[in-house]
Write the C-alpha cells for this entry.
Amino acid sequence: MTQQIPESSAAAQKNTLVDAIHTIDIQVRDYECDMQGIVNNAVYQNYLEHARHEFIKTKGLDFAEITSRGIHLVVIKAEIEYKASLRSGMVARVSTQGKRLSKFKAVFEQTIVVDHPDNEEPAKICTLAQIYIASISDNGKPVRCPEMDQLFS
C-alpha cells in the first residue's frame, strides 16, 4: 500500500524524502518473543528489512537481479529507537520512506506502529529507525547503482 504525501517545494529538492510512504502489516509470531513475552530486539531488524524489500518491489525493482549484476545494496548503519514493545498476536504496521544521500548512499526512515484495538486513539509508535545503505561492488568498492534513481524518485 502506498500513501501519497502532499507535494511541497522541499520535496522537489535533492536529498529529500520520496513523496510516498510504503506500508505493510506484519503479524507478530510467538517464536519471535523472548522470555519476557516481547519481541526480541533483533527481530525488529527482520521486520524493517522485509518492509524495505517490499518497498523496492513496489518501485518495479528486483533486489535479487540487482545483486546478480554484482551491485550490493548493503546496510552500513542502523539507528533503531525502541519506544514500545511488540507482543505475540499483535499486527504491526511498518512504514518506509527513503532519500538519496549521495551517488552511493541512501537512508530509509522507517516506523513501526500498532493501532489501538478500539481505533479511537492514534496508533502507538513502537519503533523509529533510520537505516543507511550503500551501493558497493563485489569487491566492496562504492559503485553507482542506476536503479537508485528509480528507487528514490
Summary: The CA atoms of residues 53 and 80 lie 18 Å apart. The first strand starts at residue 2 and ends at 4. Strands lie at 2-4, 20-27, 72-82, 91-100, 105-114, 124-136.
